Amino acid sequence: MFRAWGGQNHPSLTRPGHFSGARGATGGSMEIRVAKFHIGQVVRHKVHPFRGVIVDVDPVFDNTEEWYAAIPEAIRPSRDQPFYHLLAENGETTYTAYVSEQNLLPEEDPTPLTHPAITDFFDAVEGGLYVSRIKRVH
Hints:
- By secondary structure, the chain is mainly beta.
- About 5% of the residues lie in helices and about 30% in strands.
- It has helices spanning about 65-70, 120; strands at about 15, 20, 40-45, 50-60, 85-90, 95-100, 105, 120-125, 130.
- Strand 1 (about 15) and strand 2 form a beta hairpin.
């Protein structure tokens, strides 16, 4: 579970990109969501000039109302989609980002990322994916 963004515990991944255990507002089970991107995958933003590696996935929006309200309404993403926690970078700096699935594309640039926190989460790069330091038991 990744908590650096101050979010609550996230549902466990049952296999890459699949979520279970999510509960709706009434306490009933929600359908299983299939995320388009995976932890360790490098992605880029569709509009803003940055790219990053995914370190966690929320099956639906799970950030503060203040954060959500700060996005102009005309471009505000739907809450009912996966949101990704990224170690992000652009030509000037590195930072963390929280991005909706609709605003991400797979990155095709093979240049390694330089974010200083990458080694906190990943051991190596294999086949273009960063390999998690945490071994998941399925």
